Every structure is written in C-alpha cells, then in structure tokens.
TrEMBL record:
This is Transcriptional regulator. SUPFAM superfamilies: C-terminal effector domain of the bipartite response regulators. Residues 244-310 form the OmpR/PhoB-type domain. Keywords: DNA-binding, Transcription, Transcription regulation. Signal peptide: none annotated. InterPro entries: GAF, GAF-like_dom_sf, OmpR/PhoB-type_DNA-bd, Sig_transdc_resp-reg_C-effctor, WH-like_DNA-bd_sf. It comes from Streptomyces graminofaciens. It comes from the Bacteria. It holds the Pfam family GAF.
Amino acid sequence: MTDSWVALEQGADPVARVRELRRAHETFTQAGTVPRPVRSVVADSWRRSARAGVGPDGTASVELTDADLGSYRAEHPLARAMPLVRELLGSFAADGEHLLAVCDAQGRLLWVEGHPVTRRRADDMNFVPGARWAESAVGTNAPGTAVAVDRPVQVFAAEHFIRRVQPWTCAAAPVHDPRTGRVLGAVDITGGDRLAHPHSLGFVQAVARAAESQLALLAPPGAAADALELTALGRDEAQLLVGGRKIRLSRRHSEILVLLAHHPEGLTGDELLCALYEDESVTPVTLRAELTRLRRLLGPGLLGSRPYRLTVAVESDVAVVERRLETGSVTAAAAAYEGPLLPGSQAPAVARLRHRLADGLRTALVTRRDPDLLADWAHAPWGEDDLDVWRALAAVRPTPAVRARLNELEAELAAPPGWGRLLRP
C-alpha cells in the first residue's frame, strides 16, 4: 500500500479485507494486539480508543439538541463555509446515497445532510447533528480521527472501533482557521464500501481546502478591520494577528499582551510591574525597555501609555472562554479551551488568571456531569492528575480504565510524603 491514509490499495478485494479486519478487531479487543493487515493509522487509533475507555459495543451520545445546537452552530466559524461545502459535496452525497457531515474540533457533529434513506439508517447509530463522534468518545471514525491527528483519513468498514459502525465507510479532512492555523473541525463523507477509494479522500481534502479559502476571504462578522486577535491558551508563546500579520510573541511580550487585553482600561507602570514580576528588585527601567520593544514589534499607534493600554479592540481566546462560561455555554467553553493560559508563565497576575479560568471551567464540567466533556478534560495533559474530575467521570462512566486511574490517584493522595521515592529502585 503506497498511502497509509487510504483504506484500500488498488485491486484489493473489499469483501476479503472486511473479513480480515473483523478478525483483527476481535484479536485486538480480546488480546490487545494488532495483527496485519491493519494500517498503522488505524492501529494507533484503536490504541488511543482503548486508552480512553471506549468499548467496542458502545454508541455515540447526543450532546447538543434543539436551541443549544442551533445557537452553537450559528456562532461556529464553519457556519460561514457551509454554503460552499453543500455546493461541492451535497449533490455527490445525495446522488451516491452518502451523507455529508461537518464536525467541530471536538468531533461533535454540527451538520449531517444527504440521502434521506441513508440518514434514517445513520440515525440508528446516532450519526446525527449534536452527537459526539470524537475518537475519545466512540473510537476510530473518520471525522473524529481526522481532528485527532489533524490529517485527512479514510476509515473502512471494520476499521471502525465500535461494531455498530463497521458496516459504514467514511473519509474526512480537517478544516483550519486560515488566520491562526488551528483546527476548526472536519468535513466528512459517510456511506458504503464504494467510498473506500483514493478519490473520496482527495475529494474531501479538496473541499476542506476550499472551505479554508472561503473563510480567508470572509472577514469575521462584527470584527473591526484593525482589531487584534490574541491566541494564548495551551501555548507558552502567544500568537498575535495584527494587520494580516501573524506574530509569535516572546514569553514576556505574551504576558504583557494577555494582561493588557484583560484590562482594556489600561494599567499603570506600577500595576504592570507588580503583575509581571515576583522579584521586587526589578526596576521600572526593565519594564519600559520591554514595552519599547513590544511597541516596535506591533507597529505605530497600537500601544498607548499613561496608562499602558491597547488602542484598538482585541479579541482573545481567553475572553471567548470567559464569555461562554458566563452565559452557561459549558460545551462551547470547553470547545474553545485549548489548554492552560501561558502554562510556563510565572507572572503573578497571569498565574492567577490561568488558575481562575481553569478552575471555572473544570467546576462547570463537574457540575454538568457530561461524561464526554469530563473524559476530554481527564485525558488531556492538564487533567490527567485532576482528582475531582476523575471522581466525577467515574460517577457517570465507571469503566475499568476510569476506575483504575481513579484508584491510582487516590492511592497517591493517601500515601505519606516521600512514599513514591521509597518505592523507586
């Protein structure tokens, strides 16, 4: 096979391959080993699915319905690309008795359209708008795996981790924000074995690229032409979009812009000094030098003084999460949360903001008790030791893997100080 991302090599017998894959799937679910002819991309996905506690007899859960689905879908960036996606993929899906689907970056289906008979069949496995098809929720599948690995991918028949999905074949490609490069979601085509062809994978990839080009041409609704966009979640060095330029900021400049974005009224030199430095021996001269370099980087007129402030509107991913939490949109807030704010920063005010944002979201998740949202947090690097979240997850999804991890965390909590070091050779 020349391309591991394509399900079947030219000339392969799909019926024979299905039999081989079913035997391989049974071997994996019983013994944990992956025999041939399972592709490496699928084998890796099966392993991730098992680590996430997905069972082969599970099913997708519907997470968003009615008004919640409508409002979330309306504000999602991919909504602006849907007319083009329908134009390119809609007739192909209808004529071939396939389904066109678009998911968000968390594998949540936002749109599922296509042949009515095929849609009714897909309803039986909850392949419907609002359902959670993340790899961590339902195992290997094209839209969920595409956003998990950020690559176009086909999933053929028994390559799907959940058995009830194994009669289907799908191909999906991720769609990225043309400004920031982050994954917004994926475009998917789902149907029968005829989709196990290189052309279907190339087709959805072309549609995804066309959607990205369309988004690049459309200005964000309601955004000022000179507004700044700041991305600081899940990264030590923030990225700033200004005047069409992407600027990767130093750690100190990242901290300064995060704080100024959070305080549009501005901060005095003394306030900014206290917010940035734990060491009281740092002088105002040091801060002024940093601000001079930042002003030169941003360009003229963007950084004011007395007090220090940004002179144009700034939208940050931190503010997006905060707004969604304030309105009770927990699912949307979790979707926008890419990780802790500047996790390596030791600036006192940044650390307080980082902890407040994370604590607010995790408290909302524990209160919401949605097993998929809790699992996403628990399996993320920042949540793998979060005892409260693992306890909440065990209460709503008590799988052996979840219980085992919870027992480990509780044992560590109960152990006397230094116990771990004594056990090491």
